[in-house]
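hey so u asked for the seq, here:
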Amino acid sequence: GNFGSDACKFRMFWAFWVHGCSSVRTQALYFCGMNMGSVKTDLYQGHDYYMMDDLLTEEHKLIRDAARAWVKQEVSPIIEDAAETQVFPKHLLPGLGAIGAFGPYIPEQYGGAGLDQISYGLIMQELERCDSGLRSTASVQSSLVMYPIWKYGSEEQRMKYLPKLATGEMMGCFGLTEPDHGSNPGGMITNFKDAGDGENVILNGAKLWISNAPFADIAVVWAKDETGRIHGIVVERGMEGFSTPKMTGKWSLRASDTGELIFEDVKVPKANILPGRSGLGAPLSCLDSARYGIAWGAIGAALDCYDAALRYAKQREQFGRPIAGFQLQQKKLAEMITEITKAQLLTLRLGQLRNEGKATSGQISMAKRNNVEIAINIAREARQVLGGMGITGEYPIMRHMMNLESVITYEGTHDIHLLITGFDITGENAFK
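ran it, structure tokens below
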């Protein structure tokens, strides 16, 4: 909509007086109403076919619109170049912090916005509507770095790291996947042992396919102690023996940074071990939060592909009329918006369950798997609507399609999510 409209200004006024002026909300209001008046928001419509907005609160819409406007102004003009040159635009990090994309559900006392799970999802949707790599940066920071520190860290750890992570002053990454242990994280070999000085442990091992690794200030690393028990441990850049080589040659997620984490006799203070929970369930709970964000994000990618295809079909003429008038094109477009609408309903309900603390890992896996699958199928169909133009950088579809090939694999592969839901509904463990 029009971010300078009277309706939006009313939402700004309402949010200020009802919710106060926390830093993140203040920034969101600023971006939504004060700084976005010149943004050409008609370049994208939300395609709310089932009037989902009626089910959102005013704050939900305010937060979403602020994220949408910031993305359109700051990221959309540069994203194709960033993907083509395979350079992550790190100058965007403070802006991501300002719109509340880093730890939006983290309590305000730790620098977060104190928002609910639906707000978090809507922000992820708007980021991935632009690019999956942009959303990956934010969801790793939120769900895989800030979440475990908040949930399982000590009060000292929370106060030390979370406020800086919320603003983007400090960036983090999550070390779970290893070169030989992807879908079976419990088989990890990264380990630590007592240093013998009463204060430190010695960490050894390696992690692979780590988003944000090349520039992260800290890494939340999952490793086994001398008994084989898994713990989270915060490793800080600059610790001797810790390196983060960048991975190159990617044809997917090219606008985000991916790297390795290598630990060679790294001395880490025992005070950096997360004390709140140990065992494989701790990192898996973080993955639940990340997968939930991906379920929303994939809708954004699907919406952008559908939007591009619909606009093109209305404008492109063949045989004397727009191709949108032909049955085969209408079939493609009608199926796209149907699958998007089903995904929106599924994910909104999942957000309500997350708010109530009722969502299961199986339900989250169902949404992640379904939404990424429909997004990648929509990208492929949208590319066909555009014909040859669909493979060019003039349109976002091919970039989304390549990105989604990663999204369908990471945070649990397409097949693994079937088994998670299958375990949930049958009680039978197919992993063994």
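The longest strand covers residues 200-211. Residues 281-315 form the longest helix (35 residues).
lmk if thats what u needed
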